Amino acid sequence: MVEYPFDYDSPASLAAFLEARGLSMQKRFGQNFLVSPGVRSKIVKLLELSKDDHVWEIGPGLGAMTHMVLGLCRNITVFEIDRGFISFLREHFSMVEGFELVEGDVMKNWQPAYTRFAPPSLIFGNLPYNCAASFIGDLIEAGANPRKMVFTIQKEVAERMSASPGTKRYGAFSMICAFSWDVRIAGIIKPGSFFPVPEVTSAIIEMVPHHRFSGLSAGLASTFAKDLFANRRKTVRNSLSGGILAARLGKNAILNAAEEAGIGLGQRGEEVSVEMVAKACGHLTDKFASNIL
Ligand SMILES: C[S@@+](CC[C@H](N)C(=O)[O-])C[C@H]1O[C@@H](n2cnc3c(N)ncnc32)[C@H](O)[C@@H]1O
């Protein structure tokens, strides 16, 4: 393990450290740092690191988890936006072999980094609440394919991502995740494990790719899912008829594909399984491909 200058384990020790260094937390960057060493270890353990891994960490902050990962894998690329933490990370990690820092907004920087360097085998991070869902959604829709992703996010978002049909949280985001990932809540983290203490409870999600729907167009499937849940009170018939796909490919084509896949047009979106949507998309793939060319 790489030597680390400071292992904070309580809100008080983190606050004192920040003050001594002239660093401060910025609300706009969703900075709620994990102060529980036990939770940090649990997250790193979930990664099941191997020497060949190329790891991405999103929002390392002071690098408390970065230093646990360095040395256990081939290299780690971290994405950080805060200037103060960037200087701290540079000071303590830049001389370590295998460490790479991408400065700035991860929402803008991850795709160029993905194509410029070898794609990561693992992605993890205690994500800022304000961009967690959109960042994960972007990774999925762009077809990023690490062997695992582990994120700390708001519990409510984690529940949406891992929800099953027929449950309150099941929606377009659950489907978009389930087309290519098995998502499981690996732990719940109380607000008191962070500093500053957030207003919400968090969860660790573990995402492992599956290939049950290989050949499925991510763009088509996610548009279908969003159309289906555009208005939760509407029937499948009404949701799909007024959706983006119906406007582009024709209402009848969408409704026929749904029926052929076994989707009842009188059902609500929350009763429709991911398997059914994947099947319906299978009937629409050629039409969709020729429509977007
Ligand atoms: C919830 S804190 C996690 C800090 C640390 N990893 C931990 O677990 O204690 C989120 C981190 O993401 C960084 N961050 C916020 N928005 C970002 C963005 N758009 N791009 C890159 N980093 C960002 C913050 O500066 C902060 O370091």
From TrEMBL:
Binding positions (S-adenosyl-L-methionine): N32, L34, G59, E80, D105, N126
Q: Which reaction is catalysed here?
A: adenosine(1518)/adenosine(1519) in 16S rRNA + 4 S-adenosyl-L-methionine = N(6)-dimethyladenosine(1518)/N(6)-dimethyladenosine(1519) in 16S rRNA + 4 S-adenosyl-L-homocysteine + 4 H(+)
One Pfam family for this entry, by name? RrnaAD
According to the UniProt entry, what is the EC number of this protein?
2.1.1.182
Give GO terms: molecular function aspect only.
16S rRNA (adenine(1518)-N(6)/adenine(1519)-N(6))-dimethyltransferase activity; RNA binding
Per the database record, which ranges form the Ribosomal RNA adenine methylase transferase N-terminal domain? Answer: 39-211
Protein localization:
Cytoplasm
Q: Which domain of life is it from?
A: Bacteria
Q: Does the keyword Iron-sulfur apply?
A: no
Q: Which SUPFAM superfamilies does the record match to this protein?
A: S-adenosyl-L-methionine-dependent methyltransferases
Provide the alphabetized UniProt keywords. Answer: Cytoplasm, Methyltransferase, RNA-binding, rRNA processing, S-adenosyl-L-methionine, Transferase
Q: Which InterPro entries match?
A: KsgA/Erm, rRNA_Ade_diMease-like_C, rRNA_Ade_Mease_Trfase_CS, rRNA_Ade_methylase_Trfase_N, rRNA_adenine_dimethylase, SAM-dependent_MTases_sf
Task: Classify the main location.
Answer: cytoplasm
According to its record, what are the GO cellular component terms? cytosol
Instruction: State the family named in the UniProt similarity comment for this chain.
Output: Belongs to the class I-like SAM-binding methyltransferase superfamily. rRNA adenine N(6)-methyltransferase family. RsmA subfamily.
What does the UniProt record say this protein does?
Specifically dimethylates two adjacent adenosines (A1518 and A1519) in the loop of a conserved hairpin near the 3'-end of 16S rRNA in the 30S particle. May play a critical role in biogenesis of 30S subunits.
**Name the UniProt record assigns to this protein:** Ribosomal RNA small subunit methyltransferase A
Query: What high-level taxonomic lineage is stated for the organism?
Result: Bacteria, Pseudomonadati, Spirochaetota, Spirochaetia, Spirochaetales
Q: Which gene encodes it?
A: rsmA
